[in-house]
Amino acid sequence: MENLIALLVAAPLVGAALLLCGGKRLDRTGHWIGSLLAVASFAVAVVLFADMLGKGAEHRALHQHLFSWIPVGGFRADIAFQLDQLSMTFVLLITGVGSLIHIYSIGYMEHDERRRRFFGYLNLFLAAMLLLVLADNYLLLYVGWEGVGLASYLLIGFWQHKPSAATAAKKAFLVNRVGDMGLSIAIMLMFTTFGTFAFGPVFAAAGDASEGRLTAIGLVLLLAACGKSAQVPLQSWLGDAMEGPTPVSALIHAATMVTAGVYLITRSGAIFNLAPDAQTAVVVVGAVTLLFGAIVGCAKDDIKKALAGSTMSQIGYMVLAAGLGPIGYAFAIMHLVTHGFFKAGLFLGAGSVMHGMNDEVDMRRYGGLRRYMPVTFVTFGLGYLAIIGFPGLSGFFSKDKIIEAAFARGGTEGWILGGAALLGAAITAFYMTRVMLMTFFGEKRWDPEEFHPHESPKVMTVPMIVLAVGSVFAGGLFSVGDAFVRWLEPVTSFAHGHSPVSAGVVTAATMVVLAIGVGIAWLMYGRKEVPATAPRGSLLTRAARRDLLQDDFNHVVLVRGGEHLTRTLVYLDHSLVDGAVNGTAAAMGGLSSRLRQLQTGFVRSYAVQMLGGAAVLVAATLLMRGV
Amino acid sequence: MSSVASVHSLWTAAAGAPGRIPAPRIEYVQLSPTLIILGAAIVGVLIEAFLPRRSRYYAQVLLSVVALAAAFAAVIGLAAGGFGSSKAHLAAMGAIAVDGPALFLQGTILLVSLIAVFTFAERRLDPVAHGKRVDSFAAQAAAVPGGEAEQAAVKAGFTTTEVFPVLLFAVGGMLIFPSANDLLTLFIALEVFSLPLYILCALARRQRLLSQESAVKYFLLGAFSSAFLLFGVALLYGYAGTVSYAGIAEVISDGARQVDPALAGTMGNDVLLLIGGALVLMGLLFKVGAVPFHMWTPDVYQGAPTPVTGFMAAATKVAAFGALLRLLYVVLPGMRWDWRPVMWGVAILTMLGGAVLAITQTDIKRLLAYSSIAHAGFILAGVIAASQDGISSVLFYLAAYSFVTLGAFAVVTLVRDAGGEATHLSKWAGLGRRSPLVAAVFAVFLLAFAGIPLTSGFAGKFAVFKAAAESGAGWLVVVGVISSAIAAFFYIRVIVLMFFSEPKADGPTVAVPSVLTSTAIAVGVAATLVLGLAPQYFLDLAGHAGIFIR
Fold it and tell me: For the segment B61-71, what is each residue's pLDDT rounded down to a tens digit?
């Protein structure tokens, strides 16, 4: 059975190779090949899942060693896979949602000349993402990590003729580099600390390492997670990444790739559990980001950017949960999976709206679309209810558990984190209701001459329906008898948190803030007419529209600072380095001209020099002996 | 009175009964390379005497090529027969060593000379004079430059075909030089190859005054240095009572056992050893062109006919470094700590001096002369290593360097204007645009001189510096690398000049050579690249040849 693991990665990898190297002859069939291989990978995943369920909880992990990649002395890098419950969860999510989005893209990208290439990139992404979650060591994980970064870059900039898309791709790539550097440093630290970077040995030896070392490793791993998962302070790229085609936003920048940071932290739980300071840093990052993303999401009029802010915020919840340790890992992953369903569904819904509205993204020019796109409206609506945590739907179960776990951290910290998580839930309810109202309700704010909104074709709506079903039922299914928690427990371990407030109170409080958030949104956008042009807004609104000044901050601190540093270095290079070099060259030239004078051309002076040379030679020889 | 008596006893011993002088045993087989060359040289003289003028050129070229090829085959045969390793021994009553280094060096000299003969025989470069094709050498060497006799000789289409036997004599001396195993043989070999070189230097067809001046300078300074060397030989004899290398080495290590009564006052006196050793070293350092005995090099390299310069720069260096190696490794190993510091100083001066002085040169031949001085310094760094690796690295470097040098000077003969070869650097501007192939080939040679990887220059320099560093002279390597950096500047400058400058309107033309010079250049390029890309086989070869017999 373990021999099937490589097939999971191989199928989309073959697809990528075929589609990217196959040339024009595959233009007409390429999207089918790509989708078929994604579905094939999903089928293999289902077979493996069924096999895994048939085994005892402790014997479910599979290992496959393909070959030794770099065996040099004590350094050993293997191409080897590990499929345990955590990886399995991700594999099912990636291949499942990935297959749906492949199918959706057949319709969405129908009129794009470079559709074959698009599917090639999508397959490449799937292969890299599967490699990331299946690797049994950090180095191979890093290969997948870079691979998804590359795929993300290629897909954000897929419409490279648009300068904004090209710039966004570059921005995503550069910001991610900062995080990637963290991961590479983490791997080096692990190698120097443990002499290996394979999961098993590292986690087994973690207890012997000093806490300082573990904290250092944890912090650089957190840096890596921040880059990939768009967490503060490396969050700035995600909003711009919405320049990519919408299926890309759904798959990579909502459901899967951006959650790789959560996977990394959860996978490295053995290290974080022994480094409380690093864990504190993780929860701080998570709490800050969940509020940051939510606030940004409130102010955006671009539907995709509003959803991007929401993604950032929801991943903030996951990171917060992962930072809580064994009381939170399982809920982080559970929220990750439910979020994968409803956020992918929301993005596909947004794509469907754009598809019907001539690629218009400004929600102020939507309105009243529920009549024109009933399927999109219903599926989007179910996703909306799921994300705000409406009782009974997916988000309700997973988010509620995270809020509880945050309180369970204990002490003042617990109150702060729990409060932040509650506040985030309120803001989530507000901004998602705002999106819902501005898009599907109210009066139409678009010109009927120009726009002809219509429902999308089946190939697009069917994946949306499937995801909507997942959004509704996944959370409940997972929570029946704590199924999900027990499923992951052998990998991530689990501890019951002891919350200072009872679960019932937390749930009630969540319901109350939910109602408040929805109510305010309805007062602002449902009861009143939405202006077609954005009002000036308060200071906070304006700041939020500018992504809470993240780019301004980066520009002033990093870009300006970098420019100053570069100028200083160039100056030093010119004055000191070049000065030294040119000075040496001039000195050599001068010396050469001087010495040339000795070459008089007169044989008599040559003879004298030789005689002198001989005398020195003899004298030196005698001197050496001390005679 | 005692000295008078001892002198008397010497005389009587020497004049002993004729029957008691044993006939010297000569190993003709082992000496065959040298004998073939010297024999062919004598045949060449006879050709000059008896063959009609029109057929002399072909006969001489054929004879030289055949003789050099045969001698090279003999060297290969000897090496294959184990004379370089297991059967190495001293031939001709101990005067000549036949061992690995000797055969390696002789093989190198013979190959280099063979290629040099091609450049000597080139007759397509100079414009046709009065219906006759002519080479680089004077129509009639004895005619006064610019005189009527010269004009008549030119008009008659004379050429100096004597250059070929003269060249062979020089080669013969060079073959003996690195294998000489006593000081007198060393001296005689030195004179045997030096005197023909003086003559060859004077034989340029164009700019004859410059050529003759260079020859006279070379001769005067060469004689001067020979005198030093001979004085050193005398002092060493006074110290050891023998001129044989093994004998001197024995006295140095074990002290004098049988004190010759005539030398009772001097034998075993270290002052004589030190001064004598230093003076003999000086004679050899003069030949390799080491600072401060290098002054002749630029003047002679510039004045001599370019084919001669190429031959001299390549073959003389091989022979002289070979003799230096043998002297230091066979005679003076016991006093390593006396000569090594001094030689360090010489090596540093030579590396830096050559490199620094080359910066401001404006004539390509002078530039290459200073470059050869710098290279002599690099080779010295390997010589001083005083280790097995030192020997093999020097052998490799010499083989690599001599082919690059020959090729480079062969290219210099191609670039011409109305006055003959255009050697001023300013005329080389933009050559790469007019004659990309020639400029590219020259660039390859320059890169090899600079020691850029993938050329033989890099492999050689690396081997030499590695040996020097392993012998504990790391700082010498530092100086060597700095010198290489300085040297790289002027090599690259020529490349920049050739490829990135606008050609001059009245610039030189590149003559189309015959197959002879083309072969020489092609062999040079091939050797440069092969030794640069796959040096290991040849390094191994030099490594196997690296043991001197005592």
Answer: 999 999 999 99
Within-domain flag for B17: no
Q: Is residue B10 one of the residues assigned to a domain?
A: no
CB atoms B225 and A610 under 8 Å: yes
Interface test with B, best of A584, A591, A592 (most B CBs within 10 A): A592
DSSP B30-47: TTHHHHHHHHHHHHHHHH
Contact B393, B381 (CB under 8 A): no
B302 touches B210 (CB < 8 A)? yes
Which of A430-439, A558-567, B541-550 is least confident?
Answer: B541-550
Q: How many CB atoms lie within 10 A of CB A623?
A: 14
Size of interface A-B (CB pairs under 8 A): 88
Full DSSP string of B51-114: S-HHHHHHHHHHHHHHHHHHHHHHHHHHHHTTTTTTT-EEETTTTEEESHHHHHHHHHHHHHHH
For every residue of A57-110, DSSP letters joined together read GGG--EEEEEEEEEEETTEEEEEEEEE-HHHHHHHHHHHHHHHHHHHHHHHHTT
Judge whether A612 is closer than 8 Å to chain B, CB to CB. Answer: yes
Measured CA to CA, the distance from residue B398 to residue A168 in angstroms comes to: 60
Contacts B224 to A, Cβ<8 Å? 607, 610
Pairwise CA distance, residues B344 & B475, whole Å = 10
Distance CA B65, CA A288 (A): 88
CA–CA dist A620, B547 (Å, integer): 29
DSSP string spanning B268-315? T-HHHHHHHHHHHHHHHHHHHT-TTS-THHHHHHHHS-HHHHHHIIII
Residue B549 CA to residue B140 CA, distance in Å, equals: 45
Q: Per-residue pLDDT averaged across B480-509, rounded?
A: 90
pLDDT in tens, B343-379: 999 999 999 999 999 999 999 999 999 999 999 999 9
- Candidates B506, B547, B411, B486; CA nearest to B122 is B411
Q: Is A596 on the interface with B (CB under 8 A)?
A: yes
Better pLDDT: B106 or B90: B106
d(Cα B214, Cα B201) in Å, to the nearest integer?
Answer: 7
Total structural domains in chain B?
1
> Rg for chain A (alpha carbons), in Å?
30
Q: Write down the ipTM of this complex.
A: 0.90
For chain A, say whether B137 makes contact (Cβ under 8 Å).
Answer: no
**Chain B nearest C-alpha distance from A581 (Å):** 11
- Asked if B225 has any chain A CB less than 8 Å from its own CB, the reply is yes
User: Is B492 among the domain residues?
Assistant: yes
Chain B CB contacts of A626 below 8 Å: none
Mean pLDDT for all residues in chain B = 90
List of chain B residues whose C-beta atoms are within 8 Å of the C-beta of residue A589: 359-360
Nearest chain B residue to A612 by CA distance is B292
Residue range of the domain that includes B72: 27-544
Q: For position B124, what pLDDT does the model report? A: 87
Low-confidence winner among A479-493, B59-73, B111-125, B215-229 (lowest mean pLDDT): A479-493
Rounded Cα gap, residues A579 and A319, in angstroms = 51
The SS3 call for residue B468 is helix
Query: Would you say residue B254 lies in a domain?
Result: yes
Q: Average pLDDT, stretch A425-432?
A: 95
| B303 close to A (CB below 8 A) | no
Q: Angle between the A458-479 and A85-108 helix axes, to the nearest 10 degrees? A: 160
Q: What strands, in cross-sheet order, belong to the sheet with B415-417? A: B420-421, B415-417, B509-510
pTM: 0.67
Q: Considering chain A, what percentage of its residues have pLDDT values greater than 70?
A: 100
The structure tokens 């069939």 sit at: A29
Distance (Å, whole) CA B41 – CA B164:
8
The percent of residues in chain B predicted with pLDDT above 70, rounded, is: 96
Task: Confirm if B204 and B304 have CB atoms less than 8 A apart.
Answer: yes
